[in-house]
User: Fold these one by one.
Assistant:
Number 1:
Amino acid sequence: MATHFKIDGLKAAIEGKEILKGINLEIKGGEVHAIMGPNGTGKSTLASALMGHPKYEVTEGHVELDGEALLEMGVDERARAGLFLAMQYPSEITGVTNSDFLRSAINARREEGKEISLIKFIRLMEGKMKELEMNTEFMHRYLNEGFSGGEKKRNEILQMMMLDPKIVVLDEIDSGLDIDALRIVSNGVNAMRSEDRGFLIITHYQRLLNYIKPDFVHVMMQGRIVKSGGPELAERLENEGYDWVKEELGIVDETVGQV
Amino acid sequence: MSTQLTTPVNRQSVSALSQSKGEPAWLEGVRTKGAELAETLEWPTPEKVRISRWNLTAVGSHKAQAAIASVDELPEALRGLAGQSPAGLVVQRNSARVLHQLTPELAAKGVIFTDLETAAREHGDLVQQYLFQAIPQDENKLTALQSAIWSGGIFLYVPKNVEVELPLQALFYSDDAEATFAPRVLLVADSHSSVTYVDNVVSTYGESAQPITKQSIVEVIVKPGAHVRYATVHNMHDNLIDLTIRRAVVENDGRIEWIIGDLHDGHTLSDTQSLLKGNGSTSDAKVISIGSKTQQMSLTTGAVHFGRNTESDMVTRAVMKDGATAIINGITKIEKGATKSNGQQTEKVLMLSPKARGDANPILLIDEDDVKAGHAASVGQVNPEQIYYLMSRGIAKKDAERLIIYGFLAPVVTEIPIEPVREQLQRLLERKLEG
C-alpha cells in the first residue's frame, strides 16, 4: 500500500499556550513537502507534536499514517509505525554507543529471536556511513557526545537511512551545516526518495531546497499554514522574503506565542 | 537455633581464641590490645550516615572449617569467582582459609601469597613490619575491633623487581551468619615490583539468615616504583553489614589503582584512601555502586597528597533504586609542600526512584598553592529528553531507560583493565538493576 500521511486540524499547546492553531496537510508516498517560515511561527512545534514530545500537548485534531491513528500511539510506537524525525537538537547520551543505540532501534522493529546479526548490522552501518562520508569510528563513539553540529546532523540522517521510515520529518536539518555537509546530507536524503516514502522538510532557508527539490512548499505563520504552492514559492521567498506574504494576508506579527 | 546477635569481644575471649589456634605471642598481644582499645574508642563518623545506629556488634564466633582440595569442591555458584587459572588463589569460608594455591614459579621468585594467619606464623617479621603501617590500630573502634577479631585474610608480598603478570585471586565467602567473617588483607609490593590482586566477597545464605557484621581492613604498601592494581567486588545478602576500610601508602613513583564494585545488598561503609607519601606517586580509584531496597551506603574515596608531583584521580558512579540511600564523599587533600600535584575527582549519582536518596560531596582541602585540583559532582534522574530521543527511534521506554542507566555506568566499567572483573561486575550490575 502506498504511504499516506494526513494531518487534520492539528492543534497543540506547550504549558497551556496554544502554538499550533489547526494544521492541515496531506503527504503521499514519493512527495517532498517543505514547510518554510520565519522563526517562532510553530514549525518545530509541528515536528515535535507529530513525534509526541512529552512537553507538547495535542489539544485537537487527528493524524493518520496509512490508516492508523498516530496520535493515539506512544512515541516509540509512532517510530515503529514508520515516522522518523530528524531533530534540530539531538540529545547526547553518555555511555551508549552509536552502534548499540542503532542496533537496539533496528531490533525494536523485529520480533524476538529475529534480531539483526552483528555482522550484517556492522556491514549495513559501515555502508551507510561511507555514503555520508562519516568516519566509521563514530560507530563506537557515545551517541552524539562531543559531535559537532554537522556531525550530529549527519548522524540523524544516518539513523534515517538505517531505519527505513515511511514518513520523514527533517527539522531544520540544514542549520549549522557548511556547504559540503549540506551537500552530503542532501545526497543522503535524495538517495532515500522513493515512491513509498514521503518527506516533510522544515527550514527557514531556501538554500536547502536547491539540493532537495520539493514538490510542494507551504508557508507557516501564527501556527497555521497560510500559503501553499510549488517550488516557485520557495524561490520567491528567497528573493523577496516573507513581507509580501504578510502584506497579502494582512499579518502584522507572524510569530505565535513563543518567547 | 541459637541466635546470638551480640558477640562479646574482650581481652579474655580474643586471647583464648588466639592461644587455641596456636598463634605467635606477638599476634596474641596485638589482638588483646585491639580488644582493649575497642572498649574506649568510638565508631567512625562518616558524613550524614550514623553507622552507630546499625547493629554493629553481631560479629559472630570463630568457627573452624574443613579444607578443600580444589575449586571443584566449592559450591557451584562460587566456582566461577575463583578466577580462570589465576597465578595464585586463596579461598576463605567464613572465619578460615579452606584453599590455597600458588604457582611454583612465583613461589621460587619469592612471592608470598597466603592467608594472613599463616603468614603471621611463617613470616612473622615481615608481617609485623607492615601491619598497621597504612591504618593504625587505634584509629577508631572499627580498626581496633577488627585487629582483635580478624581471621583468615590475605598476605601478599612481592619482592623487589618481580612483576607478577597474572592476577592473584582471593574469594571470601560467608555461608554461616553465626561465624565471624572478618578478613584482613595486607599487600606489600616491594620496590619496582608490580602485581594485580582481585578479590570477590560474597555470601551464600539461605532465605533468612540472622544479622551479621563483616569487618574488613585492607592495607596496601606500595614501595618506590611499584605498581599495585587492587580490584574488589562485594556482593552479599542484606542481613550482612559490610564495613570495609582500605588504605594504600604509596612511596616515590609508586602507583595504586583501586577498582571497587560495591554491589552489596545490605548497609555498607566503604572507605578507600590513598596516601601519596612519595614524590611522583599516583593513585587512580574507580568505584561502581548500586543501591536497592532500603540499604544505606556511605562510600568514600580519598587521596592525600604529601609528595611533590603526585597525582590522584577518583571516580564514583552510583545508581540508587527503591528507597536506597547513598552518601558519596570524595576527599582530596593536598598537604603543604606537595607542589605540582594534581587531584581530580568526580562523583555522579543517578536516582531511579523518588524515594531513593543520594548525596555527592566533593571535598577539597588544599594547603599548597602550586597545585591543580578539580571536582565534578552530580545527582540526577534519568533525563526525559534522552528517553524521548531514544523512543523516537522506536525503542520502548523500558529499553530506553535501560540503555541510559547502563550508559551512565559504562564509562567507568569499560575502563576496568581486568577483563574477568569487568565481566563479573557487568553480570552483577545486571542482576542488581533488573532484580
Number 2:
Amino acid sequence: MKSFWTDRRWLCVLPLYAFTLVFVLGPVVYMVAVSFAQNEAGTGFRWAFTLENFAKMRDPVYVQCFRESFTLALSTTLLCSLIGYPFGYCMGRLGKRGKRLMMFLVMVPFWTSSLIRLYGWLILLQAKGVFNNLLIALGLINEPLKILYTYPAVLIGMVYGLLPFMILAVYTSVEKMDWTLIEAARDLGASRAKAFFTVTLRLTLPGLMSGIILTFVPSMGLFFIADLLGGNKIVLVGSLIQDQMTRGGNQPFAAALALILAAVTTVMLWAYRRLTGTAELEGML
Amino acid sequence: MKKKLLALLCAAATLLALSGCGAKNNSSKELVLYTWEEMFPQEVLDGFTQKTGIKIVYSNFDYDETMLEKLTQAKGGDYDVIIADDYIIEQAVQAGLVGELDKSIIDNYSNINPRYQGQFYDPEDKYTVPYGCGIPLIVYDPSVVDFEIKGYNDLWNPALKDSVAITANYRVINGITLLSMGKSMNEEDLDVIAKAGEKLIALAPNIRLIQDDNTQDALLNGEAKAAFLYTSQVTQVMSENPNLKVVYPEEGLGYGIMAAFVPVNAPNAKAANEFLRYLLEPEISKACMEYIGYVNTTGAADSIVDPSLVAPENAGTGEFIMNVSETANDAYNKNWIAFKAACGQ
C-alpha cells in the first residue's frame, strides 16, 4: 500500500480544498463574526460582542423589507412555475432537433450580461419606449402607460431573469421520465388528466421543486432588478444590505442581515431535501 | 513522471494562491489615482504622462465609504492621489490617513478660488486641492408642469403626482427635506429628524424613481416632469434639452466639494504633488470641468471655462452635508428606508 507521502495524488485536490477554505468558508466565518461586532460611525466597526445588529432588525421598517423580499420572491416563483412548467414539459416532449433548438433558444440570453438585458427592458417599457409607442400607434391607448418603475415592471424583470432555471429544471425531469408508465396508466383506464396528475406530475415533482428552489433562492437576494426597473422604490433585503455596506456605513448590520438571509435560504434547501428525499438539485447544468 | 509533474504544478499553484498577491510595484514611474469612474478626460491623463514620464494607474471606487475602507486597510498607503467627497475627507483626515501637501511642488496653489478653501474638512488648507464643486438642483419641464417651481417645497405639490425623479443619497434627500422645513441639513435633533421623516413620506406619492446614475434620463424619456439632480446631471440634461428649466431652490442649497488629497503613506508622494500641481493649471482645470460638468473651483480658469460651470454669486450660501452622530445617522437611514418603502406602495 502506498503511504500518504509517496502517493502524491492528494496534492491534486489540495487546490480545491484550499480554494474552498479561503474563498468560501473564510468569508462566511468573517461575515458571521462581523455580524456580532459593534458598528463605529464612519470608519467601520469594533470587535466587541453585541447582539444589537440583530435586535435592530425587529424594527418594523426592516421587517417590512424582509416581508417585501419574501412576497416578491414568492410571486416570482409562482409565475415562473406557471409559465416554466408547461414550457419545460412541452420541451421535453419535442423531437431531438426540436429539443436542441429550444435548449439553444433558452440559453441564448445568457450570452449577454443580465444588466444589459435589463437595460433592454428599460428601453422597451419606458413612457416614450417601444411598447408604449406601439400601443399608441395601434390606437389602443392615448397616453403612455406607466409600466416602468412599478411593481409589475419588477415582476416582469424577475420572471424574465429566472424563468430559464425553472424551464431547465422541469425539462431535465420530463426528459428522464419513463413514458411507458403513462401508457400503462392509460391502458388501465386512466384519463389523460388523471394520468398526468397521478404519474407525470409525481415523477416530475423533483424537477419542479428544484426549479422552485432555483428561482426562489436567487430572487430573495436579487435587488438590482427592483432598483433598475422599479426605480428603487421597493426596498428588498438585498438592497438594504448593499445600502448598509456602502452609504449607510454600517457593516455589522449588513452582515447580520446577510446572515439572516442566508439562514432563510438554508432552511429552504433543507426543506427541499426533506420533501423530495434527494440531495442534488435537478437541472443544475 | 507526468503525474509527478502535475502534482508539483498543482502544489506550486496552491502556494502561489496562498501567498497572496505577490510583490507590489513601487516604481517611481507610476502614480496610482483612486477616484470614481470617468472623472478625467483621457487627454488630461495622457498629457501628464507625456510631460513627466509617470504612468497613471486609474483605479475606481463607487462609494466614498468603499474608498475609506480600502484606504484604512492599506494604512494610508497603496494610493498616491485620491479624489473624494468633502465629508469623507474629513473622516480620513481625522483618522490620520491624509498626508500634508508639499506646496513647494504645488507652487500654483493660489490658482484655487478662495471660496472653496478653508472648508470644514481642511480648515488650514494643509491637505487638499479642490477638484470640482457640486450643487444639486431641481430641473423641470415647463411644457408639462403648469406652475413655477421655486424650491424644494414645490416638489410636494400634488400636481407632480408620480412624476418626480430624485437622486439616491439618503443624507442629501433627508437634507433637502430639512432645508424645506427651515432646518439644517445636518440636524442632530432626533425629533426634528423624525419630523423630516414624516414629511418625506408625504413626498412618496410624487416619486417616480429614485436613482443615482443617469437620473436625468427620466426627464428626457418622459418618465418624470421634475427631477432633483446632481450638478453633472444638470449640465448634461440641459445640453440635451435646453427648454428645461433649472431652479436654484429658494430654501438654500446643498453644497459639495470633491477634493484631491495625498494619502499619508502614498508610495509616490512626489509624483502625487506634481499631479496636483498639474490639475491646477487653468487649461487642465477647464478640460476636466467641461468633461465632468462640475462647478469650476480653480479660480484661475474661471475666465476660460464654460460660463455655466462658474458658480453663481449665491453658491457660497450653501450648506455641506457633514458627518453626524451615529444615532442621528441611524435615524436618517431609517427615514430613508421608510421613505423608499412608502414610494413603492
